[in-house]
Amino acid sequence: MKPDLPEASLDEHKITQVLTNLLSNALSFTPPGGSILIKAAQADGHPELLQVSVSDTGCGVPKHEQERIFDRLHQVKAGDATTEQGIGLGLYLCRELVRLHGGTISVESEPGKGSTFTFVLPRTQQLLQTDLLLVDDDPDMLDMLRQLLVAEHYNVRVARDGREALQEMRRQTPDIVLLDLAMPDLNGAATLREIRKAWGQIPVILHTAFANGELMKQALTSSPFTLLAKPCTPDQILQTVRKVQRSGDTDIWKKNHFGLERPRLN
Amino acid sequence: MKRILIVEDDTKIAAALAIRLEAAGYSVLTAPDGLTGLKLAVEQRPDLLLMDIWMPVGLGFSVAQRMQSLGLNGIPIIFITASRARGLKKAAEALGAVAFFEKPYDSQALLSAVAEALKSQDNAPSEHCAAAAVV
Prior knowledge:
The structure holds two protein chains of two kinds. Chain A has two domains: 12-122, Histidine kinase-like ATPase, C-terminal domain (Heat Shock Protein 90, 2-Layer Sandwich); 129-249, Rossmann fold. Chain A has seven helices and nine strands, in the order H-E-E-H-E-E-E-H-E-H-E-H-E-H-E-H. Chain A has helices spanning 12-29, 90-100, 139-151, 162-171, 188-199, 214-220, 234-245, and strands at 36-43, 46-56, 104-110, 114-122, 131-135, 155-159, 176-180, 204-208, 226-229. In chain A, the strands form two sheets. A five-stranded parallel beta sheet of chain A has the order 6-5-7-8-9, with helices on both faces. Chain A has a four-stranded antiparallel beta sheet with strand order 1-2-4-3. In chain A, helix 4 (162-171) runs parallel beside helix 5. Chain B has helices at residues 11-23, 34-44, 60-69, 88-94, 107-123, 127-134; strands spanning 3-7, 27-31, 48-52, 77-81, 99-102. In chain B, strands 2-1-3-4-5 form a five-stranded parallel beta sheet, sandwiched between helices. The radius of gyration of chain B is 14 Å and the shape is globular. The model of chain B is unreliable at 125-135 (pLDDT under 50).
């Protein structure tokens, strides 16, 4: 294991299972006096990938078996007849678990000399999830929203006011912004105006209890947006976010709830 | 064959681009939004991205930022946009875009830019090709 190994956020249980399977295979196919080596490193030139390999000095896998070895219920006819055979599920399971994690698994082997099983995983799934920025001055509301959406596998970031939101957006552009309208200092309408200036038509959900107020009138000049009226149930929140996510093929993107056309920039 | 990923929410434009690129001898993948595009880029490791900027879910700029974080900055990006907003070109360049086109674009110029980007990518010591072999 290299000392400079970067942090990775993995499903510990699944990855342990993959490692245990590979190790128990290596153990059962390696004769007494053989050696087994485990390596974990950042994939060459690919900082976002973690590469783990398990090598043994066992009987190896013949070339024609190497592709089928991960298939369900496939058993390798080992050269050594006394070698213990499994039921052919172990490597299939490994491949499925690694795939679930967005990774790949492969084998390199020379019969008689040994095998190396290697799996490569993305170190974090966050960058591949829908990135939501939640903006609300009420910490309880923020907390509730965060818990709700994290449980649905969104990558959630939070900001407690408009200024913080703009800062967070400059750091990394989110996919969707869920914006409270009534906030002190830089309110939702003013924040939305700034967002439209710098991020054009990024999808914004306006979360408000004052759907008919003065702030809403101001916000309308920065439409389109999707309105999520308070109070609302967790289900309504999730439905709204999902609708916006899918809006590529619905009319929300082109027109908002008020029937206004998508604005032209400048 | 070089593979190009088109990330564009307007399916008509994506189709028109795909036809031109395929006729020019490239293999083409398409994604209807930025996030799908990002996932495809990670899975398929295309040689080049042709990307719109304003798309629902996953703005082009956000995808470019995330590709950098994922170590995929070896894949050149060409942005195409209908927007005339000032500063877009500068922002695209800051994110390492190799070219920037406004719609309506000149297809010949676009094809040359694609060829140019792929050529300079071949000359550069390509990180992502080496790593693709690992994967």
